[in-house]
Amino acid sequence: MRKLIINADDLGADEARNEGIFEAIEAGVVTSASLLANGPALRAGLRRIGSLSNPGASFGVHINLSEGKPLSRNLRILAGKDGSFLGKGPSQQLLTRSGDPELEAEIAREMAVQIESLLDSGVKIDHLDGHQHVHVFPAVFPASIRMLRKYRIPWMRVPEEPLSSSEEGAVPDRLVKEARFFSGIAERARTQFKTIDLCIPNHFRGLYLKGRVSTPVLVSLLRGLRDGLTELMVHPGRVSRTSLPGPFAAFSTPDREKELEALLGRDFREALGDSGITLTPFPGELS
Question: Is it the case that residue 148 has pLDDT exceeding 90?
Answer without folding.
Answer: yes
